[in-house]
């Protein structure tokens, strides 16, 4: 199940209502603690149209999940940076170009990476900063505690307007693959994080946002089987596997 706030089939379609739809069992946080985090919004509805998250990787580039934007026109996407609230404050900037990884698979969500080129440069400050990305040589052992952040949605009470975060440990890749079995193919371009007992996770509306480990963005919220389910960890696009592609795009 994708973790964007809408089923993106054409322009913003109906909300999914089959899963708990927010950072599960997390806490409210301040954007100063996650200044690389941005919200992806429908520019026609910037107050209520948040549907995914992303990470600032250069003054005019945002990294997000391919499935967040693959079917959308760039005119249907804007970002808000520098605010703890997705609906107000900070810097609201249009997107002029999207670059989806050429090997992205919209069935398996393999290589779930996309970059958004902004209409103008972000103004960097205490609330807006370029993310540190993991390198190809970075490796986080299973059990390493990381943090996933995002706004998401709530099923019954409307949007979770303020940024939330929850700590989740990196899961063993082979165990994750065995646990998912036929439910979802876990590829080498994915990493898993969460608890065996479940209970804490990213969820609907958090797609595209960062999984931050030791101050570096290691994953992009991608897919999962429900949210916070026992033995079914959250699945993230592995940033280390795409580092060279990311750099090649933002340096052009």
TrEMBL record:
GO terms for biological process: digestion; proteolysis. GO terms for molecular function: serine-type endopeptidase activity. Residues 23-251 form the Peptidase S1 domain. Pfam families: Trypsin. It catalyses: Preferential cleavage: Arg-|-Xaa, Lys-|-Xaa. It comes from the Eukaryota. It is an enzyme of class 3 (hydrolase). Keywords: Digestion, Disulfide bond, Hydrolase, Protease, Secreted, Serine protease, Signal, Zymogen. Residues 1-21 form the signal peptide. GO terms for cellular component: extracellular region. Its EC number is 3.4.21.4. Gene3D superfamilies: Trypsin-like serine proteases. It is found in: Secreted. Major function may be to aid in digestion of the blood meal. Belongs to the peptidase S1 family. CLIP subfamily. This is trypsin. It comes from Culex quinquefasciatus.
